[in-house]
């Protein structure tokens, strides 16, 4: 087999669906293997929608207002946004309200807290991490239950 025939053979194997090819002639062995064609997916970067980019027309604005009013009429209330600062989980783990099972909780609703005061523990990878308040104020709401799994950034307490 000359070089031209060999090159043609390589081209034919490359263009085919074969993943391998063996050829033997007069004690000369030729083996061609090719890797499977891997298709790598790519995604185009997403563009953020800014409030300026969204234009509300008079008709759709009226429809949105009517919808909001209809929902408020059905529920009978218009919910106000909760007041106060939120202490959020700084890591993923298990939330504990007390330093031990038989101990009193660090804080309860109505307690006054100071910035830097320990308010809970989050266990992560068998390590106990004390969570400190970022705010001075009064605890108005405890948003998670003892022993509950929490995510990074999940609200734990509301302090007013």
From TrEMBL:
Occurrences of domain Lipoyl-binding (ranges): 84-160
Record-level GO BP terms: fatty acid biosynthetic process
Keyword Isomerase: no
Stored InterPro entries: AcCoA_biotinCC (IPR001249), Biotin_BS (IPR001882), Biotin_Carboxyl_Carrier/Decarb (IPR050709), Biotin_lipoyl (IPR000089), Single_hybrid_motif (IPR011053)
KW Lipid biosynthesis (keyword) present: yes
UniProtKB keywords: Biotin, Fatty acid biosynthesis, Fatty acid metabolism, Lipid biosynthesis, Lipid metabolism
Segments forming a coiled coil: none
Pathway(s) it belongs to: Lipid metabolism; fatty acid biosynthesis
Cross-referenced SUPFAM superfamilies: Single hybrid motif
The organism's place on the tree of life at top rank: Bacteria
CC per GO annotation: acetyl-CoA carboxylase complex
GO molecular function: acetyl-CoA carboxylase activity
Known role: This protein is a component of the acetyl coenzyme A carboxylase complex; first, biotin carboxylase catalyzes the carboxylation of the carrier protein and then the transcarboxylase transfers the carboxyl group to form malonyl-CoA.
Identification of the protein by name: Biotin carboxyl carrier protein of acetyl-CoA carboxylase
Organism the protein comes from: Dorea formicigenerans
């Amino acid at each position: 087999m000359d070089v031209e025939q060999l090159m043609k053979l390589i081209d034919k194997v490359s263009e085919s669906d074969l993943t391998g090819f063996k050829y033997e002639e007069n004690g000369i062995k030729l083996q061609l293997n090719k890797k499977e064609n891997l298709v790598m997916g790519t995604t185009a970067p997403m563009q953020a929608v800014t409030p300026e980019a969204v234009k509300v027309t008079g008709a759709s604005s009226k429809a949105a207002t009517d919808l909001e009013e209809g929902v408020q009429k059905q529920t009978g209330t218009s919910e106000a946004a909760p007041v106060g600062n939120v202490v959020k989980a700084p890591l993923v783990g298990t939330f504990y309200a007390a330093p031990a099972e038989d101990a009193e909780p660090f804080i309860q609703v109505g307690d006054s807290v100071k910035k830097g005061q320990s308010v809970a523990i989050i266990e992560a990878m068998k390590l106990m991490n004390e969570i400190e308040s970022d705010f001075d104020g009064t605890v108005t709401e405890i948003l998670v239950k003892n022993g509950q799994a929490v995510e990074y950034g999940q609200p734990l307490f509301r302090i007013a």
